[in-house]
Amino acid sequence: MMTGRDVFITGLGSYSPGEPVPFDRIEDVLGPLEKIPSKLNAWVERMRPLMKDLLGIKNYYYAIDPVTRRPTEDNVSMSVKAARVALEQAQTKPEEIDLVIYAGIVMQAVCPPTSVLIQEELKIPYCADLAIHSNCSSIYKAIQVAADLIANGRYRNALIMTAQISSAFLRAEHFNQPKMEKSHVLLRWFLSDGSGALVLSSQPRPGTAKLKIKDTYIESVGLGLGPDMYCLVGSVKSNPLEAYENAWHHLQQNFENVARLAPKLGQEALDNMIAKTGLDMDKVKYFFANIPTKHLSDMVVESLRKGRKLDHIEFYTRLAERGYPGPCAIVIALDEFLRERHPPAGETLVSMVTESSKWMHGGFILETV
């Protein structure tokens, strides 16, 4: 339960790189898979039109030059673009930020930390910095850490950023194609690139406060489970040649386990979040379902409705517009929601995510102000 000073989200910024790419042009940008096993290729040709309808994603965004397929952005450049929008909206100068947090699955480099590289680009002279390593739950963890540190008086203004360049893992040249599996192709069909930023403050300037943070929730529940999304490069598995030969660098997801566990664990997570925060679901107006695919989203939402009266809640997602950019998805959704809806003061917004990498939950409760 949050105690101490009130904490507000005073600025939001999001960034989607490049032009929108429809499903039928994914391979034009990411590159064709010409060396995959013949059996897998037959499956791809059979499943492609089915997955187009099942996923229901209109467009994707990639930080890639569509001609050369070389990167056009990195974690720092995309984070900075989102951060500048958030800072302007919050009417906050970079030098007023005293806490910078970068949250994401992949850092810019082994060292220095991504957080201080962003600090350099934004010309923030002095600040505390943190980097949180996780996938889709990382932004929720960052919000909890920043909100608690501001509430207890340690800091006044925090800048949180996240960026996801999934395309770095999805380009045809990245793969050891003879060792590719179905899951690698599936990930190419729904992951996207993007970035997001939030400014949190205890002292919002007049007219800048968008949302008040009522409470946050994070919990790791994966004892004995998974990992069900992983990339094995790192630590002792860092030899480039050995990593390529063994396909350790391939981003992998166990879709069967995710489809089986996500609805059940998502339902348990909502129960735990209610118990730990005292959330009254009768007062919730909007629920931001941060779930990577439409099929899985429908399954989880149906599971959440079981035994609960949730007909008054609108489930909101931006998945169909831009694919799934991991932890950035919730920032993009919040940013676009506030631009589209302009909700009146006093509305309760809730978001929750279940990360399948080792089964972790994250959530927050916001109130419009």
Characterise this structure:
By secondary structure, the chain is of the alpha/beta class. The protein has twelve helices and 14 strands. The protein is globular, with a radius of gyration of 20 Å. It starts with 7 loop residues before the first strand and ends with a strand. The mean pLDDT is 93.
Short description:
With 369 residues, the chain is α/β, with parallel strands linked by helices.
Q: How many β-strands, per DSSP?
A: 14
Element string (H = helix, E = strand):
EEHHEHEHEHEHHEEEHEHEHEHHEE
**How many helices?**
12
Taken from the alpha-carbon principal axes, the silhouette is: globular
Helix content: 25-40%
Average pLDDT rating: 93
Distance N to C terminus:
20 Å
Structural Rg: 20 Å
Largest sheet: 10 strands, mixed
Beta-strand share of residues: 15-25%
Secondary structure class reads alpha/beta
Instruction: List low-confidence stretches.
Output: none
Q: Give me the side-by-side strand order of the main sheet.
A: 5-4-6-7-1-8-14-13-11-12
